[in-house]
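Suppose you are handed a protein chain with no further information: no name, no annotation, nothing but its sequence. What can you learn? This example shows the usual starting point.
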Amino acid sequence: MVPDTVRAADGDETGRTGAYTGVWTATEATGAAAGPYLYSAALALGGYAAARVGEDVTQTGGAHTAILLGFTLLPALLMAAALAVQSRYRLDARFTAPR
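A reasonable first move is to predict its three-dimensional structure. Written in structure tokens, the prediction is:
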């Protein structure tokens, strides 16, 4: 859908479709690669305690907060960073025309 949308906004085949989808793919792949590491870092900072099979572990309040923020705030921040990178590439000719 992204290439079709870009092609419709661009109006011609100038290669901007490939550049736009390339940036999109790069930010998506970076988020997918960095996300698990950042989430595990958030859990470690929160004091999350891992357990083995059959072992009961009581999590601290900090660990619960880390789990909550890791599933809510962290993905939102990663998405905001990806959108910031993506927003630098404009499809509108009036924004991309040479001055």
